[in-house]
Amino acid sequence: MDTVTPTTRNRRKVLAVLAGGLVLGVGAAITLAAWNDSEFATGTFTAGSFNLEGSTTSATAGFTNHNVTKGDTAAALSFSAPFSNLSPGDVVYAPFWVRLDSTTTNNATLVASTGTGTGTNATNISYSVYSIAPAATCDATATSGTLVASGTDLTTFTAGSSVALTKGATAGTAGTAAQLCFVATAKSSLTQGGAATGTWSFTATSS
Amino acid sequence: MRPGETTTVVMTRRRLRPRRRGLALKRIRAVLAGGLVFGVGATVTLASWNDGEYATGTFTAGRFDVVGSINGTAFASHATAGTAIAMTFAAAADAAALAPGKTVYALFSVKTATPSVAGTVKLTASTYAAGTLADYLTYGVKTVTAAQCASSTDYAAAGSTVVIADGSALSTSATASQTVTANGGNQVNYCFAITMPSTVGNGAQGLALTQTWQFAATSS
After folding, report:
1. CA pseudo-torsion sign A191, A194, A195, A200
2. Which of A159, A185, A190, B200 is found 20 to 30 A from B127 (Cα to Cα)?
3. What is the ipTM of this complex?
4. For the segment B47-86, what is each residue's pLDDT rounded down to a tens digit?
């Protein structure tokens, strides 16, 4: 029998435990070192473009932006005579064409958003806005169209139906215009010599 | 007896002694020789016959290889971002002109190749290009049972499991991983839904983005 001092015995125990731990550590490392492989996939997305433009002259020409909130000037409608010399009961008409411009990539829905009036006779003129065929004449027959907005006077506003706008059939082509026919009627309360200005906004929302 | 040996008896007796001595020597030699023989015999006994049996073990390292597909049937390897395959988003017209409120869908299937050991796959957003259309888009990913992902119906089909919650930023990676069994035993169908939220303003108009996703697979 060897004569082993307690100190030596302890040292051997420690070494044994350390050796055991070393083996355990190697085993753990092997488990962690798994094989790796990857698959890569991409998705390409492009945001669309969207712009509404309007014309007071024609279904095919004279279109510009009239977005007041972007600094543009509102389109001045050309009402039929006698818009500058109204008497009670007179009815005047003005066409306004709107369409999605050539850069637009999405169809849209157009709604009348607001209608405000200023001036002496603002409360003495009622109005209606109808959606009619692009080539139709904006006159007394317009009332057969779809009512888009109306007001008992220029300071009131009641929204009507929405109008569907389609983008151009091919890229770079503007969409088909929709004609909005404004019908303004001088009420019996019309003040002589008084002016009035009505302002409407229409909003197209991509769909 | 040989002739002449009988002539002198005394001589004969005298000669007998040396003969006996010779006999003893012979006996000793015989015993020694016997011992020698015995020793030889013992040596032979110790050198017994030998025979062996040999067995071999042949070991081959396995392979781990995952492959992917954008249509659920044609699988290939796209192991680096540079060789990434472009997913096909539906509806194509919407993917080419995303508008607020639009969601487009695409499939990407992953399985192990043959041969390959089993493993797990984890979806990771590989690139995120800040300042681009990526800022405006959100996405969600589900695993679907059928290898079909072209509509909201496919996306919400029975058996679908959320991998990335709807409405997550494009920089979001999955927290859980999916299991792929060995040798293409099962196929994980990821259904991607990319959305331009209806709240996105006009600032996003005309922007473009190519987003890369990594399906990081680890053998198990």
Report:
1. negative
2. B200
3. 0.71
4. 677 888 899 888 888 889 999 999 999 999 999 988 999 9
B179 shares contact with chain A (CB less than 8 Å): no
**pLDDT of the residue at A29:** 46
Residue B191 lies in a domain: yes
Residue B194 falls within a domain, yes or no?
A: yes
Q: Tell me whether residue B129 is in a domain.
A: yes
Residue B55 domain-assigned?
no
Number of domains in chain B: 2
A97 part of a folded domain? yes
Q: How far is CA B33 from CA B23, B24, B25, B29, B41, in A?
A: 14, 14, 12, 6, 12
Do the Cβ atoms of A39 and B79 come within 8 Å? Answer: yes
Same domain, B28 and B115: no
| Residue of chain A nearest B197, judged by CA positions | A47
Q: Which residue of B has its CA nearest to A44?
A: B210
Q: Is A40 on the interface with B (CB under 8 A)?
A: yes
Total domains in chain A come to 1
CB A142 within 8 A of CB A93: yes
Interface membership of A32 toward B (CB under 8 Å): no
Q: How many CB pairs under 8 A join A and B?
A: 139
Question: Interior CA angle at A44 toward A46 and A42, to 5°?
Answer: 165
